[in-house]
Write a structure and sequence with these properties.
Length: 588
């Protein structure tokens, strides 16, 4: 390196320089080591952390040198330092150090806090959540954003609470499964003792309702809660085949295929089954008329019938809803003298003008037109052709074409929600006789051949068998943004009727501390049973009177009061039900 001319004899490696400095510090002794005081402000790094390397009074041991790139802004305005200075601003204010001298600013921290608060005030917006009533029986949430307003904590605490929706609308559709989820455990619903099950069965048969306490600190130790839960799971059914699941019946051919059906080829056995079934149906209607049974369902392989006692769903007398129906069934009902209406079609007629209604919808709405209208169209509908003198050149449609056109319009309604039929008053008794004598009520072929329709009721009747819904409490994991979260769930399966859903929610309200959700799985052909009935001009019956009249129907008063309100769901059914802070919200 010396020969190349690029080597300097005074050059030393960095390690040699450090060794020389350590030796010099040892030789000078402790009396020469003077430390200059370094002023430190909490949360703020000084502009000059220490004296320069060649300063006369520099500390020799581990003192950080001055940062040449440091300035007041980038040493203080970092987010971490601002947050620390904001919390400790009462003790000291930030002050820069210039050339080792401290410049004190006692009001700097206070002024900075005021500036930050002003910024937060400018960015703050008030969001209010109000409860907007959907109708007399429901409400929905609505979010409103107002102008930026800053409220003090006292005014927020003293603000009026939001309206609480303590009830959800009655859902007359049948459910096949309900899944309840909640942050609280459902362990109280499993491992029921024999004594608790017996008390629940006895209370159901005697229609005795004790009710659970309003506040339950320990649900697993609450005997009333566990007995009431067993009472809610009971229902009555006819016929009862232990090896067959007789609900649902529509579209359930695969469930019956391969099963033992000894009555399929035995006409005597089929006649015996239908005889017992007729007795059970007649008994149910008698209980309904005496207001000892609130409602019952008739589930055949083609349609479902809902019979309701007088006063329920805002009715004046006994009502019956059939869905879905066909043209042949409606004509057979007319032939037996049953007067009925199509509530969905009549509602559309009243709500829409003729000019805004589609021609296809109009053709479907002409279910109750008389034959005289067709005759008028046949005779006088082409009178304008005579006035123009071209009646001989235009071929006039014959009566057969007009009849086929009308039949096509009627067939378009088959198996659709618009085909739901409403029967009211004394016509329900005629409908009862029609169903008993109807040949097409029982399938003549297939896996359900010879099997009578399923009768479901909340109270006992002749020939009925007591059944229990299946309940299972498990813990599931749901996917959230941060991963998976444990959620407690309670699954109830079987033919879940309206009163059962309401009674279960009344029990879960105190048991889950007013916070749970429910996923409702509806038997789709019965969703249209929520259609509202036509209201007469007479004054409506008060709910208190309905509860008093149906006091012996076998349901608790809160369930009767809910079922007595007019239906507001239309042809939809409840899909989700949520309770937050003892307030309901739902989705259809």
């Amino acid at each position: 390196m010396a020969e190349l001319g690029c080597y300097s004899p005074s050059f030393k490696k960095p390690c040699d320089v450090l060794r020389m400095r350590r030796n010099r510090a040892r030789s000078e002794g402790p009396e020469r080591r003077t430390s200059s005081p370094v002023v430190s402000v909490p949360g703020v790094r000084p502009f000059s952390p220490g004296p320069l390397l060649n300063a006369p009074g520099r500390s020799r041991g581990g003192v950080k040198r001055r940062n040449p790139f440091a300035n007041i802004e980038n040493t203080y305005n970092s987010p971490k330092k601002r947050a620390l200075s904001h919390t400790d601003g009462e003790k000291a204010a930030a002050a820069p150090v210039l050339d080792g001298k401290l410049e004190e600013r006692p009001n700097a921290g206070a002024s900075l806090r005021e500036e930050l608060l002003n910024t937060d005030r400018r960015r703050q917006h008030e969001i209010t959540v109000t409860m907007v009533p959907l109708s007399e029986d429901g409400c929905v949430f609505e979010e409103e954003r107002s102008t930026p307003v800053l409220k003090s904590p006292e005014s927020v605490c003293l603000a009026a609470p939001a309206e609480v929706c303590v009830e959800f609308p009655a859902d007359w559709s049948l459910k096949t499964r309900v899944l309840f989820t909640s942050p609280q455990s459902f362990s109280w619903a499993e491992h029921v003792k024999a004594q608790e099950e017996a008390q629940g069965l006895s209370a159901h048969c005697r229609a005795q309702f004790t009710g659970a306490p309003a506040h339950i600190p320990d649900p697993r130790g609450c005997v009333e809660l566990r007995c009431g839960f067993q009472q809610c799971l009971q229902y009555w059914q006819h016929p009862s085949m232990p090896w067959l699941s007789l609900f649902p019946r529509i579209g359930a051919e695969r469930k019956f295929s391969g099963k033992c059906v000894p009555w399929a080829q035995d006409s005597a056995l089929q006649q015996s089954l239908m005889s017992d079934w007729s007795v059970s149906l007649t008994s149910l209607y008698s209980l309904l008329k005496a207001r000892l049974c609130p409602y019952f369902y008739l589930c055949s392989y083609q349609f479902t019938v809902l019979f309701r006692a007088a006063g329920l769903s805002g009715s004046k007398g006994i009502t019956a809803l059939l869905s879905p129906t066909t043209r042949g069934l409606r004509e057979a009902m007319r032939a037996d003298g049953i007067e009925f209406s199509l509530p969905l079609l009549e509602e559309r007629r009243k709500s829409k003008d003729l000019g805004e209604t589609d021609s296809a919808v109009l053709s479907e709405h002409s279910e109750n037109e008389e034959d005289d209208d067709d005759e008028d169209d046949d005779d006088g509908g082409f009178s304008w052709l005579k006035e123009m003198g071209v009646q001989d050149k235009i071929k006039k449609p014959d009566s057969i074409s007009i009849k086929l056109r009308k039949e096509h319009r009627e067939v378009c309604l088959d198996h659709r929600p618009e085909s739901v039929v409403l029967v009211e008053g004394s016509n329900t008794f005629t409908l009862l006789n029609f169903l008993i004598n109807c040949k097409s009520l029982v399938a003549g072929a297939g896996s359900q051949a010879g099997l009578p329709p399923t009768l479901l009721a909340p109270t006992a009747f002749r020939g009925a068998t007591l059944h229990t819904l299946k309940a299972r409490a498990v813990n599931v994991k749901t996917l959230v943004r941060t991963g998976y979260q444990d959620v407690c769930s309670l699954e109830v399966t079987g033919p879940i009727m309206p009163h059962t859903l309401h009674a279960l929610t009344q029990l879960l309200r105190p048991a889950q501390r007013g916070e749970f959700s429910a996923g409702l799985y509806t038997h789709e052909p019965t969703a249209v049973l929520n259609v509202p009935i036509s209201q007469s001009s007479e004054p409506e019956t008060q709910p208190e009177c309905v509860v008093q009249d149906l006091g012996r129907c076998g349901l608790q008063q809160s369930s009767v009061q809910q079922l007595a309100a007019p239906s507001i769901l239309g042809k939809c059914a409840l899909r989700q039900l949520h309770m937050r802070d003892y307030s309901y919200s739902w989705k259809t």
